[in-house]
Amino acid sequence: MIGYVTLGTNDLQRGARFYDALAAELGTTRMMEWPGAIAWGTPGAGAGIGLTKPFNGEAASVGNGVMVALEAKSKEQVDRLYEIALKHGGTCEGPPGPRGDGGFYAAYFRDPDGNKLNAFLMG
Known about the structure:
InterPro entries: Glyas_Bleomycin-R_OHBP_Dase, Glyas_Fos-R_dOase_dom, VOC_core. This protein is of the alpha/beta class.
């Protein structure tokens, strides 16, 4: 079981605006904050997500092949999360729509630092 995922940022305040907007749509908020890092989620309700400036002081970079998936409650919420992401500085990596044959509906986007995310619904 994954407890949380942390992504790097080079501009914490810009990233915070992006993730605050996604978290609001998902019905959660910031649960921890300290200099250089913020975490969103609801204790006991599944994996959270953190955004941090790298501990070693180097520039944050995107992991090739790394993606964080945000579970939505409906296709409409997938669509809204995608639109929120783009409105808050994200970029499109694949618009909302069905993927494959198994009832998987998803939208893909990157945050302002280039970290890849998706919003999805199974079934």
